[in-house]
C-alpha cells in the first residue's frame, strides 16, 4: 500500500481489525480512531460500511494516512476488500 517496507514496523493486520469491528460494530456505526497512524482502522471501517473519524496529532503521519484513505474512499481493492465485497 505504501510502497516501502520500513514505514511502520508493527502494522495492524486488516483481518484482525475486521474481526474486531465485526464483533463490536454494525454497518453505518461510527468508528473513532483517536491515533490514526497509517489509517488501517479507518480503512477497514470504510470497507466494512462503517462511518469513521480519524484523529492524528503528529504531522509526520499525514503523508502516509491521507493518500491511503483517499485510495480507500476511491475504491482501492487491497487488504480485506475482496472479503467484504
What characteristics describe this protein?
85 residues; mainly alpha; two-stranded parallel ribbon; 2 strands
Can you describe this structure?
The protein is mainly α and 85 residues long. Helices cover 41% and strands 9% of the residues. It has four helices and two strands; from the N terminus they run H-E-H-E-H-H. It has a two-stranded parallel ribbon with strand order 1-2. Helix 1 (14-24) packs across helix 2 (40-47) and helix 2 packs parallel to helix 3 (62-73). 22% of the residues are buried. The mean pLDDT is 88.
Q: Helix content range of the residues, please? A: 40-55%
**What would you give as the CATH superfamily?**
Vaccinia Virus protein VP39
What's the architecture, going by CATH? 3-Layer(aba) Sandwich
How many independent structural domains? 1
Instruction: State the distance separating the first and last CA atoms.
Output: 19 Å
Write down the Rg. 12 Å
Main beta sheet: 2 strands, parallel
Spatial shape: globular
Which parts are unreliable, with pLDDT below 50 for 5 consecutive residues or more? Answer: none
CATH topology: Rossmann fold
Name the structural class: mainly alpha
> What's the rounded overall pLDDT mean?
88
Number of strands: 2
Task: Indicate the CATH class.
Answer: Alpha Beta
Strand order of the largest sheet: 1-2
What fraction of the residues are assigned to beta strands by DSSP? 5-15%
Amino acid at each position: 500500500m505504501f510502497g516501502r517496507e520500513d514505514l511502520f514496523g508493527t502494522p495492524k493486520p486488516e483481518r484482525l481489525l475486521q474481526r474486531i469491528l465485526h464483533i463490536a460494530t454494525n454497518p453505518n456505526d461510527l468508528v473513532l480512531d483517536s491515533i490514526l497512524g497509517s489509517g488501517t482502522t479507518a480503512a477497514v471501517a470504510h470497507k466494512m460500511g462503517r462511518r469513521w473519524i480519524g484523529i492524528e496529532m503528529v504531522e509526520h503521519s499525514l503523508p502516509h494516512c491521507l493518500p491511503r484513505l483517499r485510495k480507500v474512499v476511491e475504491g482501492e481493492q487491497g487488504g480485506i476488500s475482496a472479503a467484504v465485497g
